[in-house]
Amino acid sequence: MQPLRYGCHDRWTWNKRDKSHEVRLFGQDQLTAHFHPNWSNGTAGVRGTRVLNEGKYYWEIHISQRIFGTSMMFGVGTKKARLHLDAFVNMLGENDQSWGLSHKGMLWHNGKCRQYTKSFRENESTTIGMFFDWHQGTLTYYKDSMCLGVAFTGLNKLKEDLFPIICSTAAKTEMTLGLTMRGFYSLQDRCRAAILNNVANDDDVNALNLPAKIKSYIKEGMGL
Question: Which of these, 143, 136, 218, 128, lies nearest to 178 by C-alpha position?
């Protein structure tokens, strides 16, 4: 069962200013990351724009049929986590700044790995879901809607901001950000989400018969 089904849709994408030069972003809102467009001589990654601290978040990554190579990874990391390396490595989890799952079913953190699930079938598309719960300090993975169990704990002990990250060593591979959900921060936030479901832009918000301060709060939600 999908987490946060009673939450609201989140708004974030891949950061065009925080990625390897071997990653190209495409599509509406640049949700698709294309790795090593010509050939690969290393590991390339991209960080998401969403800061995960203090909340509950669920997002899905649609992986194209090209699943192969040393490592295709999905996880979280700080700003200190590397996004490019001229070597074929499991970059997410190489140190204490990131946590990741590879397409070979291994969990990586602080340079250590352990078996978590079966290897993904090569050349068969799949969808990976990630549920981050700051209050519990956990990261849980889903594969094609099936929960794989809690992968990492203690993430709420960090003082640095955490972000979604994906990376790949394989040439011409693609990952697309799909469903993004978040939990509500407060009753006020829940009410704003209900309004945002019925407006399309700033002009719609300006037309509402509400105080300017509340309109400003609603507009802030468009960028969350």
Answer: 128
The helix (run of H) or strand (run of E) holding residue 212 is helix 212-221
Cβ neighbours of residue 43 under 8 Å, at least 6 residues apart? Answer: 20, 70, 71, 84, 85, 87, 88, 89, 91, 167, 168, 169
Residues 123, 135: Cα–Cα separation, whole Å: 37
Closest CA to 32 of 170, 143, 178: 178
**Pair type for strands 8-9 and 72-77:** unpaired
DSSP character at residue 27: S
The structure's pTM equals 0.90
pLDDT band at 33 (very low <50, low <70, confident <90, very high): very high
Token reading at 48 = 């998401």
Residue 215: band (very low, low, confident or very high) from pLDDT cuts 50, 70, 90: confident
